[in-house]
Amino acid sequence: MAEHILLRHRDIPGLDELDVYLKHGGFEGLRKAVTKMSAQQVIDEVKASGLRGRGGAGFPAGLKWSFLTPGVFPRYVVANADESEPGTFKDREILESNPYQFLEGLAICAYAAQVRTAYVYCRGEFWDLAQALEWRIDQLHQQGLLGEQLFGTKYALEIHVHLGAGAYICGEETALLDSLEGKLGQPRLRPPFPAAAGLYGKPTVINNVETLTNLPPVLTRGAAWYKTIGTEKSPGPKIFCLSGCVVRPGNYELPLGTTFRELVFDRGGGVPSGRRIKAILPAGASSTILAATDAVLDTPMDYESVAAIGSTLGSASVIVLDDSVDMTWAVLKTSRFFKHESCGKCTPCREGTYWMLHIAERLHAGRGSRQDVALLETVARQIQGKCLCALGEFSTMPVVSAVQNFRADFEQHAAGER
Amino acid sequence: MSAQPVTLTIDDVGVTVPAGTLIVEAAKRAGIHIPVFCYHPKLEPVGMCRMCLVEIGRPRRDRATGAPVLGADGRPVVDFGPKLETACTTPVGEGWVVRGLTENARAGRREVLEFLLTSHPLDCPVCDKGGECPLQNLTIAHGPGKSRFAYDEKMHLAKRVPLGDLIVLDRERCIQCGRCVRFQEEIVGEPVIGFTERGRKMEIVTFSEPGFDSVFSGNTTDICPVGALTTADFRFEARPWELRAAASICSHCPVGCNLTLNVRRQPNARGQIQVQRVMPRQNEAVNEIWICDKGRFGHHFASSPERLAAPLVRRGEGLVEVSWEEALAAAGDGLRRAQGRIVGLGGGRAANEDLYQLRTLIERLGGSAALAEWMAGGDLIQQFGAGSQFDFGRLGAGDAILVLASDLQEEAPLWWLRIKQAADRGAAVLVAGARPTRLEGHAAQVLRHPPGHAVQTALGLLHALRGTRDLARFRGDEGVRQAAKFIREARELAVLFGREGLDEAGTQALACASAELLVASGHAGRPGSGLIAVWPKANTQGAWEIGLRPPPGGLHSMLAGAGAAVIVAADPAGDDPALGEAVDRCGFVVVQELFLTETARRADVVFPAQAFTEREGTYTSGERRVQRAYPAVPPLAGTRPDWRILADLGAQVGLSLENGSASALFEAMAADVPSFAGLSYRALAHVESQWPIVGGDDLYYGGTAYRNEQGLGIKLPALAEQGPTAAVHWIAPVEAPSGGKVLLVPVERLLDSGTTLLPTRELDPRRARPQAMLSRSDADAWGVADGDEVEAAWKGRSARLAVVVSDGVPAGCVLIPRSVGVPLDAPAAGRVAAVRERA
Question: Could you give the domains of chain B?
């Protein structure tokens, strides 16, 4: 792709300065929304664009907004900047280098949702970015782009930045809401969904940073233009976070539907020389691990196609593993991560992640048996379908898929052959 | 209640329940067990433990018409989801098919249990909960026979983490169900404990200083589904299966909480059978399944080694132990010598049977019997009291509750708890007081008045209701008018009055004004409304029913002028040194007591009475519910129940009083006392099934509170329900005492140093001390700060008190706890000065 739509700062130096951003059409999308469109028209335009949530679930953004319980105010919009999935670093780049486009997108979403107070929930480690965001919000106030009477209308908006305390679970939207309310971050029971009872029990929209960053171009250039990018069901650009055993890791903004092969080999330069690609985790640690067959490499990275091969696109955090990687090590890493991040609210996740880690440690250290390989898989399956939120489910995906697709790695350990 | 009925099938049983009912509850109502840990019927569902997983099938519906799709067999097609679902968070649906017994659902239960047990220490052999443990029971019913978890990989955590002085946490045993946290947050509204950390490190911690600062803390041990929370009192003391259970009634306050006393033969008490722990016994109309920590822990007095175990007779300066025959003969002689100039004094701590027997004995000897507590209004309660259908649990939106001159959480905690919950349901709680109390946090309207001015506030409300000119001088402000609006518009109205800042005349005036409020607002005689006195003792209302009243001329002149006095369950000399002097002036004094009280020390004959744990009896609660207590332990050798002592005394003076059984005495009383007409021990033992189900096989569901199988008691109707009563007229308030520099006001503290609470050592750190609570401005003016010592002086008396500066205390007023050894029982004008230690 010649032009960056989300990582626009790569084309325009200094885009994190407000005057530069404004010079390049900044806040025209918000101006158009607030001065020329009704809230419903904005929702309709976003629906027409086919924009899907970039946080992982891929839920259509406009449709999500239309679920807000009508007539109940105040409402809230929350930007989910808790980017915590291992291998995901796209929101960080947006917040660092193209922050005003994100803030404009947040304001557009707030206008569409008829919200006067919006929050940015940043992961605890983003303290520097959170501080910078607050400074930028001040700048917007000084320019009259936030606060009362925006663009001379009656619309008013305040944006507040809230820093989390470093828990992965707070990326889960209902745990995020509890954390934002000052409580221990643990997922809520659903229903009610946030669109009905979210922050402080009020109708709430929660969108990912990248999703919101798509909004200014959707409004300025129109839904029809937007749909020319990507695939029919997964339109638009996507930032793919490429990491692991690749020559050029990093963020790549490409149309949805780009193949794994293009990302990993054409953009990322393939695996270091002398090695062969072994596996791909398409969505960070929360992935079914795919054996990197030709069929997989030629799969387009859009929500439907990745699901069709038994995995998920998620936040598109593509982690590449080459043949030097022992899959018991990979499973040890993901298990340790999920055990550390399990919030503890529901039994299967709290106890199951702890148990899986212990089996994985045993196997990796060569203290396990073939029965332990089987046990690891059954414990993972025992977690499945029982958890309160998706975290527990995610924790099992790399485990089950690794044992199934790379059983030899595990059995070698079990037999003490490694 | 008018929710649409929904019919579904659970484990092949057809069940019809109101729409909105959760599947677990629908199952329980049909007698089907769906195992749960985190779910509790009194708490909001959270779906944390995942134990209640079931298969749920929903009828397929035609997308266009919404009509159920029928299969080839003509029956609705039911689609089951791909996953198990939590029965505790899912409300029922019409035509649903719920399956908990399929292999899939059973596997779900087995697997969740296997997970839970991977972390659980399995120390059942030394665990207090073993034998009544939901985790143990459900593991046996649903769990895997053995675990595949490597035992050595178990996480080990602290085994003894005191959350406060009374509750100890075993972190290993905790299964993080959050019932305790949610109880404190949702039911009590005092979120002093909570979760911290994540995953397996997640633990219960206390946020308050002192730790677990809530008088309802013990209830968390009943609903804890494992042995994670234990009480300091019962921890490692006994195994549940060694305990026997006896039904009882709490003797500490007028709520009348239903209790179960668990008793056991004690190896460390010379093999005596003693009360091991006090548990709530379900009575949804009284205490539901909760009790306060005073009721739970305040039982040790009954087994105190300080108890009197032999009669005492005065020989010169001292009292000496004698036989019952000798003591009875001495007492009989003394009573005869008084030649009818006899008075009886009964305390509200005694049972109905004792007080009735006392009145009968004294009246037949030509004397009169009186009530030891001076607070007035019991006659008005008989007329306008809580009606036959009254239940705090039924009050909610559209109802109003007015509380006057009482710090309810300190005086009657379960009423406080139930009023708080009524407020949660939308009832307008109106609190009138001179200082902030915890109830005010749940109030729709707070009416602040100067100390001692509760009557003025009540009359202000009456003025707002009636607008008559005679009341014009009590016209209140906008807050009073707003409160009056709530009262006028309320469907049901409860008025509770206490005695804070008032003397006897003040309580009389407050009772009249309160009763008139009910009349003026049209609530008098409504079965669901009524007047409740926050009495100082458990059975004060019973005394009034039986005809005991505070003596018209005051206790002092009654005692000082009597030829002989029989004092039962009262310690006037301990309450007030002036009354001690009156006791000394009385010609001849007989005291029936548990302990050698100040009054007993001054007596001529002392009889050792039995504790409430050792005997039968009935108590009349402040809501006028007559309830039975049963003997739990064998009586201490040498003691007799008060009513029998009185019968034995009667025999000495030639009177035949009922001395056969408490039940026969009760029947004689029922024939004589109009309030109790038609009642019998059998009627009081009547039970009905209650919701939620607790105890037994269902203890995993409702907790270890005991099922009530021994009687719900009988609620007395108010006379006003039967038609117009004698007119009630407000009386002018008396002015607060003056003449001193400050007004000293005794206030109730739940955990005091009274005779029946002092022997519970576990409560020592939480006990009220001789202290002066005063305002910041007064503290500054007197140059004192927290912890300094002051000397308060009033009516020729004085006491040294520790200063507690509190923003809640009005200036010019010093609050002093009752029953901490400071002889201040009614407000008094006095002086306070800093004590300066000489260097």
Answer: 5-151 (3.10.20.740), 154-303 (3.30.70.20), 312-373+547-677 (3.40.50.740), 378-534 (3.40.228.10), 742-834 (2.40.40.20)
